[in-house]
């Protein structure tokens, strides 16, 4: 059945800048905020925007991500005429297998998109933290009779050189694209959110595949080609909270911001829920020895220590006389007695033995990887 719009979430990134946190899983599957995973925000935005058919393009270490998403039922996407579909690389007749870039990932999934037969395709990254109503962007796209609409966010001018920058006219038409310019002309940074007319994008990808095979990435190849050919390209400005959690520092910072009860994401908002798929866990247990301040504690936690301004994910255990401060503790972590954890991110299933310390600073967050066991009396994140 023909759809007006479907979404394709690009979730195959390795996330090398997150180091040991992504050795066992793809970046979009990294836990966030105690209860969620990073990809939950893109999936929830789709569900809340009324987009019921979502393809999730995976590649690197996909097992945990696949298990988390399932058929999309946790986000209300499973139904007779809707659903979340995991799209993994496979060997095609021309020998292609691994996705070479964002645009190539879409090209290799043309058969899936054609099956949905959409008029528009929404392309998303699976590793950003934000709430956004994509239906508003679609309305602007149709109003402008656009071939492509790019989601942009104003950033401080001094940071603009870190991003792909869209230069626009007074009607928000994109007249120039600059990839990480040394001297940016505007501060409209691409969010990696695109709405394409599918028929037009499909034609470009197929024609390129038959000739140069150069259209591997949207930012580097597709957008410049659209502009060169005079396609109607517009920017859609987003002014809410948006965070690229691609580094240890940004991931820690976003989690700490999440502790603010007045956080602009407003996670308690009933009209725009952030959904997730959680394992069933028993209620949390806080012993008489525990003290808690300005922290988020998920189900299944057993707390006997002192927790200050931290996030504890599902099934975390903290022993007597232990301090956890300004830290992010992912699920199934065991922290023994008389431990000290400050300015740290502790990966899933890690163990901090009795008496051990993991101490970072605000400028150098200490990180413990998946299932890692800390050895010695002190560990500061250095090898």
TrEMBL record:
PROSITE patterns: ADP_GLC_PYROPHOSPH_1, ADP_GLC_PYROPHOSPH_2. Keywords: ATP-binding, Carbohydrate metabolism, Glycogen biosynthesis, Glycogen metabolism, Nucleotide-binding, Nucleotidyltransferase, Transferase. Residues 7-258 form the Nucleotidyl transferase domain. The record marks 59, 98 as: Could play a key role in the communication between the regulatory and the substrate sites. It comes from the Bacteria. Pathway: Glycan biosynthesis; glycogen biosynthesis. Its EC number is 2.7.7.27. It catalyses: alpha-D-glucose 1-phosphate + ATP + H(+) = ADP-alpha-D-glucose + diphosphate. GO terms for biological process: glycogen biosynthetic process. Residues 288-358 form the Glucose-1-phosphate adenylyltransferase/Bifunctional protein GlmU-like C-terminal hexapeptide domain. Alpha-D-glucose 1-phosphate binds at residues 164, 179-180, 190. The keyword Nucleotide-binding applies. GO terms for molecular function: ATP binding; glucose-1-phosphate adenylyltransferase activity. Homotetramer. Involved in the biosynthesis of ADP-glucose, a building block required for the elongation reactions to produce glycogen. Catalyzes the reaction between ATP and alpha-D-glucose 1-phosphate (G1P) to produce pyrophosphate and ADP-Glc. Belongs to the bacterial/plant glucose-1-phosphate adenylyltransferase family. This is Glucose-1-phosphate adenylyltransferase.
